[in-house]
Design a protein that fits this description.
The structure is a homodimer of 747-residue chains.
Chain A (H helix, E strand, L loop, with lengths): L7 H10 L4 H5 L27 H7 L8 H8 L7 H22 L5 H17 L14 E4 L5 H11 L6 H5 L29 H20 L11 E6 H5 L1 H13 L4 E7 L2 E2 L2 E2 L8 H7 L3 E5 L6 H13 L5 E6 L22 H10 L11 H7 L2 H22 L1 H12 L20 E2 H12 L6 E5 L3 H4 L8 E2 L8 E3 L4 H14 L4 E7 L3 H14 L4 E5 L17 H6 L5 E3 L4 H13 L5 E4 L4 E2 L7 H5 L3 E5 L8 E5 L4 H13 L4 E5 L3 H5 L3 H7 L7 E4 L8 H4 L4 E3 L10 H7 L4 H11 L1
Parallel strand pairs in A: 1-2, 2-3, 3-7, 6-7, 9-11, 9-12, 10-11, 12-13, 13-15, 14-15, 18-19, 18-20, 20-21
Antiparallel strand pairs in A: 4-5, 8-16, 17-19
Chain lengths: 747, 747
């Protein structure tokens, strides 16, 4: 897949830490002196729309930090930065860039950008702190368009703000092959886009993860004399996001955690694809969010009420202990005389005639894709301003590094994604004499060993910490008043958990989030896991109770098709370790793969420590665990994964006693094995050996590839059952005897 | 899988319609004369705990229907039916049956049954209308234990009420192989259990579906002089269900639809597996439900406040236009002196010592599994009472049938699941000359044809009706005030939609719910789809935009691994039709499979009507579409599904022109093909022919089984891209040229 050639960590190493800003900062064009406190705006244009004087603002922000004077002056001002007429012109520029791009592609969603252009303008032009020339600057404000179908809003804003990723030609290539402006926002295609959205509700969840990361890192690394982590997370979500259950899950958590620097704009436009939201969505969103612990503000005129939007943001920032929902009532497709406020403007191009009518209606005389000079000039200050913001921060960080070298070194790891040297030495190893144990317990040993060496490791479970064995014993719970801790309590909210973890992973390359539930409940969070894979978020999914081996809970809790279903998913690692060494290997792989999520399927039941297993073997995905053949010519190959590998090993012993040359292969990760050289693969599974039997307590779907048409796959192609685990294994024929019988039949 | 030998339709045919109740009704033991209005209770025991006189009750029910006098007298009374001491004894019986069963199994969840026993007792003993000897009686009240891990509560209640499915020996076999008392409630194992729960949040969603079905059928079939459909749906959900996003989705819909006969008990016990809910769940649930349009009542003492529970139910019934949430604050593990109110009683046996302490604490002198005689005697009235209720209803139905023969015939189809004779003649057919069309449009033709002949067909989309093409043109929207209509507007709530559809399907064997979204968003609802498959709910999943063929929306919207992921799932039909005839065939299969859900993967893009496709072919899962070979010995077999079948056909033509003997096979459903005889399979895919090329716009995972190790599977093993569909097909190599090249390479 085409991806940005700039990895976040490269960008950070190249730009954020050792960035030379002299070129940009020497360009003083429209850049207010950073130390001047009294300037009401950055633009240099006369402000007539200021709603709060600087002093009244100070009063309304009782918790204003003494360290943030520069910051307050440079950014926290919500005074308009331009004449209202210019603001309107800028807003209409955003609208028409969206209209024109959708029209040219004849595909896309113009309605949301047209309605949300005012809040978009205020956010990117007046409120947010970012550096267009380094989209990965660590302390930037994060913006998430949860209503991702409206991506032309974000592309237009990135374009105006001066991001290199969205030039005019990119806008003209909207939704075309190989462009940087795909049909929904994709962080891996477009620097400046923080996360991948489109599937509704994911974005608000990612935003909760971003805000969690900020709160957590700020608590860990800020010092009374050095507030080096301090940014907001802004998100726009629509009616569709609101209807999705995931948004309620994560909003409940955001309220619980008191994520005061999360500010969500709810684009309340009363239209969804099927028409008026009245047909399916009549709940009262404001009180719902209040009941979830949010501060709620209603901007009744989101179309032209610029000052109301500004005031709302100001109020939101003043509320430090709660996230804020700003319900902004807008008109979808604002400006279109015949299609505004209707579903027809939601997901289709306006059509030439209506574009013309809209141009007339909004008095827009320009050619398609044209940005008027005064608008361009007005926005041009963001490049030097961004450079200056980053330079200031870099200076601050340099000072921090001097005073707090240890913390700075740790934080650098988190910022750059560089793993501390020798981290992998912390991984536990085992011998066949080590006590038998469930891989979920072995997983906990790994987590607790790794957390000592990985400053970015944090995570938790969806209310199954004591079953998933995911508690970090050195740490307490990440909570509203203890945000520096690393055990995250997600509650029974698997979907939200996955998507929040994506947000954490995408906040900083060195954050390594893990999350946990029973393997079968990946069904609840599959949409989030898929986005981990797509958006290159190296989340570690700790999935225990990975088969009928969980026993009595029965078929609702017993995964069957899940291994196959993830093996079929692109860009993900499905790992099913068999014992201690393989669990350590799985963690090594998972930690190293920062752009590919890993799912660790772990047993509830005890498993022996097998001779022949190794971390190195796991890294190859498939390898020989035992073998009494020579010349790469075994009579029989037995292949197993996870809790069935010992069954294969037991069967092999019996067959070897009968004089057979038997090889046992652990196929712990199909994806990693697939990536090995043909020679290596042949050395493990020689093509000439067709007597192959596999055993795995899951669907046999896909195993033909491994055992071949002459082999046999032993597995489970029905739902499970409620009974003690041993009984189910026997009844389902997952036994060494069955392996032996199959091998003999094939021989 | 072991299932109940009684299918619902058999049971209904055998019992409900022509049930002879004389045997039971001649047993007048504790049975109040059905025509007597004034009796305050059915038990014959003196009532001392009546909270409302019969007359005050009448006043407080302003909308009380004139037809329901007998019903009101027989059931709506919420006067206690026994002395409080006997109620307490019954409640403790429930507690100890749960304690003893979990103890014997040394596995399970005693905490919830111990806390919820009072509300359970009141529901099953005082409130609900059911017939223990016919668990499938059509007009029964439905009960759903959404907190399914507490299933011993329901088993104990079914046992006391006289259901044959839960005898003492079944309780003793709790969680054992082959028992009727599995680890979570499973409708297919235990008659009397309505749905399959355990995965949290599913049950409340199923309950919304059950209540929707009641409201819909009542609106369609009740007459001013014959209210033949009139039951409540009760559900108990816990903190875990509340945290799951799906519960917010469906609760929002229940409020929107005004499902007044849905009464949910929220077991507010402040404990989840990880400990106090304070660590992850501090939202205010009551106001949240009010904002969703529910009536909310709080019973502060759910442990012993019997009258409060009774009063709450009474109040809930009086609110006709809103569903009611009764928040019942309970103590988890009530009665256990050392473990009550702690997570340790949530999911583990108490242990012998604590069982003993609890026996002492609750003054329970009995042996394990003992039901005291007076409790047994008290509950014994439910068998004759249930028989009587059903007999009354049967009489009422007989009268209805005389007056409204057409409606009665239709309703019988819905009750029994018998499909109207000749229904399949309504399926449209096509010739190669029929215009090319997207299978999503052809799907709509089928839906609109079928709805004319299938009285139980109803459904809708998750806010994509105009994209999924699922509107039934003859009907309006199912809404609060138009519940007789059949287009259900689910909003953007895929997960809730699936689980609500499960509830609809399990309400009556003849209800045929369909639901729709983009195929990729099955990820949002996979947990519900899996439960469709497990609980044998024949939901039809209409999944459009089934590949990269959707084009510009890009990788977040393009399914890749989804076909494979469902082919690996047990008891489900994954169908991917290629044109009009195949779409009709897919609907035929889907309608006929009432105990197996079907997923129809349908194209956004236009497809030609192919020569050789047929309904009969689809019924076999795989079949020959074209062939110029003889003697079952083609040189080459090309295999395709859905939108790639025409590509295979095009490639075949070119190869045939070059003199090759080429067969084209449509593999529209792997599951159906797998079920055919070996001879048939050999006639389609002869083992001797190894030159096989498959083409499908999805993951190649699993295709080795079909093409063999010498064949080639053309597909997509990466994420998609945002661009016009034709461009992506070409760039991804999904072309006739690629098929031809592969076939030649293999030949």
């Amino acid at each position: 897949m085409a991806t940005s050639s700039l990895t976040p960590s490269q960008a950070l190493l190249a730009r954020a830490i050792s960035h030379h800003v002299s070129a940009q900062s020497s360009d003083q064009h429209r850049l207010s002196p950073a130390t001047t406190l009294s300037l009401p705006s950055l633009s240099g244009l006369k402000s007539t729309t200021s709603v709060f004087s600087s002093s009244s603002r100070r009063r309304r922000l009782p918790h204003a930090r003494s360290q943030s004077q520069v910051r307050a002056a440079a950014v926290e001002t919500l005074d308009a930065t331009a004449e209202t007429s210019l603001v309107e012109k800028s807003v209409n520029t955003i609208r028409f860039l969206a209209i024109d791009a959708v029209e040219k592609a004849n595909s896309g969603h113009p309605g949301l950008p047209m309605g949300c252009a005012p809040m978009g303008h205020i956010l990117y032009d007046e409120v947010m702190r970012y550096n267009p020339k380094n989209p990965y600057w660590f302390n930037r404000d994060r913006f998430v368009l949860s209503a991702g179908h409206g991506c032309m809003l974000q592309y237009a804003l990135l374009h105006l703000a001066g991001y290199d990723s969205v030039l005019e030609e990119d806008l003209k290539q909207f939704r075309q092959w190989g462009s940087r402006t795909p049909g929904h926002p994709e962080n891996f295609e477009t620097p400046g886009v923080e996360v991948t959205t489109g599937p509704l509700g994911q974005g608000i969840a990612n935003a909760v993860g971003l805000a969690l990361a900020e709160k957590h890192l700020a608590a860990r690394y800020n010092k009374p004399d050095a507030e080096i982590i301090d940014h907001y997370t802004y998100v726009i979500l629509g009616d569709g996001c609101q209807m999705e259950g995931i948004s309620n899950e994560v909003s409940s958590l955001a309220g619980h955690w008191g994520l005061g620097k999360l500010i969500a704009f709810y684009d309340d436009n009363h239209i969804s694809i099927d028409g008026d939201t009245e047909i399916a969505f009549t709940e009262d969103v404001g009180p719902r969010f209040e009941s979830l612990g949010w501060h709620v503000i209603w901007v009744k005129n989101g179309n032209t009420g610029y000052d109301d939007i500004r005031a709302a943001i100001k109020e939101a920032k003043a509320v430090k202990d709660k996230p804020t929902l700003i319900k902004v009532t807008t008109t979808i497709g604002y400006g279109s005389p015949n299609k505004a406020n209707s579903y027809s403007v939601h997901g289709s191009a306006l059509g030439a005639k209506e574009v013309e009518a809209t141009r007339k209606n909004l008095a827009w005389p320009y050619e398609p894709f044209h940005v008027p000079e005064d608008v361009k000039k007005h926005w041009s200050r963001h490049v030097p301003k961004g450079a200056s913001l980053e330079a200031e921060w870099n200076a601050k960080f340099a000072e921090y590094e001097k005073k707090y070298p240890e913390e700075a070194a740790e934080l650098k790891c988190i910022i750059t994604g560089e793993l501390p040297a020798g981290w992998e030495k912390a991984l536990p190893t085992y011998t066949p004499e080590s006590p038998a144990d469930a891989t979920r317990n072995l997983s906990q040993q790994n987590l607790n060993a790794l957390v000592k060496v990985l400053p970015g490791l944090l995570g938790g479970s969806a209310d199954l910490a004591s079953s998933n064995m995911t508690l970090l014993k050195m740490f307490g719970d990440f909570q509203k008043d203890t945000p520096e801790e690393r055990n995250v309590r997600f509650g029974v909210r698997e979907h939200g958990m996955g998507a929040i973890s994506n947000g954490i992973a995408l906040h900083s390359p060195g954050l390594v989030p893990y999350c946990a539930t029973f393997f079968v409940f990946t069904d609840y969070m599959r949409a989030a896991i898929r986005i981990s894979a797509l958006c290159e978020a190296g989340v570690i999914y700790v999935m225990t109770h990975d088969s009928i081996g969980l026993g009595e809970d029965g078929p609702t809790h017993q995964p069957i098709e899940h291994l196959a279903s993830f093996r079929a998913m692109p860009n993900i690692l499905m790992l099913r370790p068999a014992d201690g060494n393989e669990t350590a290997g799985a963690y090594k792989v998972a930690v190293l793969n920062r752009k590919r999520p890993s799912i660790l399927a772990l047993s509830r039941q005890k498993l022996p420590q097998l001779p022949g297993t190794s971390i190195e073997g796991v890294e190859k995905g498939g390898y020989i665990v035992s073998d009494n053949s020579s010349g790469n010519k075994p009579d029989i190959i037995l292949i197993g994964t996870g809790s069935e590998l010992p069954i294969a090993a037991e069967a092999a012993k019996a067959l070897q006693k009968e004089g057979k040359a038997v090889r046992v292969v652990s196929l712990v990760s199909w994806e990693l094995f697939e990536e090995q050289s043909d020679a290596y693969k042949e050395s493990v599974l020689p093509a000439a050996v067709t007597v192959r039997v596999s055993i795995e307590a899951g669907s046999t779907f896909g195993w033909e590839k491994i055992v071949g048409s002459k082999g046999k796959a032993i597995g489970i192609d029905r739902f499970g059952a409620s009974a003690p685990a041993g009984k189910i294994y026997k009844e389902f024929g997952l036994t060494a005897e069955a392996v032996i019988e199959a091998a003999k039949e094939l021989s």
